[in-house]
Amino acid sequence: MPEWTVTPDAAGERLDRYLASADRAGSRGRAASAIERGKVFVNNREMTRADAGARLREGDVVRLWTDRPGSARRRASLGERRDLPIVYEDDMLVVLNKPPGLLAVPLPVDRRSDARSVFEDLKGYLSTRGRRRPFVVHRIDRDTSGLVVFAKSAAAQQALKTQFKRREPERVYLAIVYGRPSPPAGTWRDTLVWDTRSLIQKEPSPRDPRGKAAVSRYRVVEAFARAALVEVTLVTGRRNQIRIQARLRGHTLVGERRYVYGPDALRPIAFERQALHALRLAFRHPDDGRALRFEAPPPADFAALVDRLRHRES
Question: Whose CB has fewer CB within 10 Å in the chain, the N or C terminal residue?
Fold first, then answer.
């Protein structure tokens, strides 16, 4: 799979023009076709037609998957492409290592787009094996990578959802944040409310009855010059919880686009998504109750950011 790292002289160039050079795709037409057919990735994220004009940054990793299975037509199901990122599967559940840039589940009807989701990919995969569809247990953000579990039946879904409601599963994330949380280990406790108009979490007014507790435990794994690698364990599971809790303490996630305000936006560390990865997931099997524990290493873009901060920013 051909791969290129964007050099300083190519920074700011459009993706399609970058690919069109003779030593890459060879022409604008071939570059556009590769993007359209899901063969182009930037920092491990699949590009779409809407990304053709995206400006590249120094250090971006551009990959051209020329022989990607199923790419003869746009967005073929992962069941057909045979690259579904399955970590574990049995008769009752599937655990996936979701790549960044993919939705966990499709958007609501009023926000529909052609954005790809692992739910639909998994649905295609299961249909080839005589099953109807997966059942959603929990979800992670589109640009967050890592572990997510789906059930294969309504009964298994209910059993797993009950565990999540009782806060029994272990859910551990890695995040790269600006600054260094102090003390280096502790607990974040907040009251949050979901703004249905702005689609963000925020702190409610004192009299707002909709406020819900948000609790996370954290520890600094490694500190860099301007940022830190932090392990965060969810106690509660509010939407965007880690992203907003880190920001409320002045430690915006590197690459964050939504929960950004203040000095962090003035001299950003280049990264194409929020630097957040669902590292570890543990829960009881919905059938026999045995303990299941899974861990997925961070994807290439996240690992490359850690390496860059460790060697260039320190």
Answer: N
Helix (H) or strand (E) holding 3: strand 3-5
Predicted pLDDT of residue 274: 95
Residues of the chain with CATH 3.30.2350.10: 78-311
| Location of structure tokens 């890459």 | 24
The residue among 76, 5, 10, 83 whose CA lies nearest residue 38 is: 76
Q: Tell me if residue 67 is catalytic.
A: no
Residue 167 neighbours by CB under 8 Å, 6+ apart = 235, 236, 237
pTM: 0.72
* Nearest alpha-carbon partner for 183 in 103, 266, 249: 249
| Domain ranges in the chain with CATH number 3.10.290.10 | 3-64
User: Phi and psi (nearest 5°) for 287?
Assistant: -95, -60
- Please pick, among 141, 143, 264, 301, the residue that the annotation labels catalytic: 141
78-311 folds as: Pseudouridine synthase (3.30.2350)
Structure tokens at 67: 């022989």
Per-residue b/e over 257-270, b at no fewer than 16 CB within 10 Å?
Answer: ebbbeeebeeeebe
- Reported in sequence order, the residue ranges of 128-273 that DSSP labels E, i.e. its strands, are 135-136, 145-151, 170-178, 185-195, 200-202, 212-223, 227-234
> Do residues 270 and 165 lie in contact, with contact meaning Cβ atoms separated by under 8 Å?
no
The CATH code for residues 3-64 is: 3.10.290.10
The DSSP letter of residue 127 is H
Residue 222 near residue 310 (C-beta atoms within 8 A): yes
Instruction: Split the chain (314 residues) into runs of 10 and give each run's mean pLDDT.
Output: 87 91 84 83 80 87 70 40 78 94 78 73 86 90 96 96 96 96 96 88 86 96 96 96 95 92 71 96 95 94 94 66
